[in-house]
Amino acid sequence: FSQLQHNNFISCCRICVITLAEAHPLLQNGKTITSINYQISANCSRLQNKVSGKSKRGAQFLTELAPLCRISSSDGEEYTVYSCIRGRLIEVNENILSNPAILQEKPSTEGYIAVVLPKFEESKSITQGLLTQKEYEEVLLKR
């Protein structure tokens, strides 16, 4: 997965946009996405996330290991995308449900998976733990 961060100076918090990393298998080898499912379990659907107000009431709380969605490809493979950060689920991208191709065509913009708002006091440690683009490319070269 990949995270894009945005400083929101109005409310002094950081939001994290969860996307597929450039090296994700779904973005390699010409795979075709057949479906995206935000239904995590019988009792939990990320589509049921209803957020309101400045304090983001009603947002589902996510841990680092919380699944966001499951993505199936034409070769029968299924990939679970995890939050990878603790925070509140602000939004899921419903546009990828009707047009899964944008997940592959524009993974870092319109093809994002979800938006997560970490706790303000945790946002600095999250940022410090991220790789720079150069560090990420070095990790890929070692694979």
TrEMBL record:
* GO CC terms: dendrite; filopodium tip; growth cone; lamellipodium; nuclear speck
| Record GO biological process | dendrite morphogenesis; regulation of actin filament polymerization; regulation of filopodium assembly
Q: Where in the cell is it found?
A: Cell projection, Dendrite; Cell projection, Growth cone; Cell projection, Lamellipodium; Nucleus speckle
The protein's matches in InterPro entries, at most eight in alphabetical order, are given as: Abitram (IPR039169), GCV_H/Fam206 (IPR033753), Single_hybrid_motif (IPR011053)
Which UniProt keywords are listed?
Cell projection, Nucleus
Where it mainly occurs, coarsely classed, is other
Q: Does the keyword Nucleus apply?
A: yes
| Molecular function via GO | actin filament binding; actin monomer binding
Q: Which residues cross the membrane?
A: none
Lineage top rank: taxon = Eukaryota
Q: Does the keyword DNA damage apply?
A: no
For this protein, the record's Pfam families field holds:
GCV_H (PF01597)
Give the family per the record.
Answer: Belongs to the ABITRAM family.
Q: What is this protein called?
A: Protein Abitram
Q: Which organism is it from?
A: Charadrius vociferus (Killdeer)
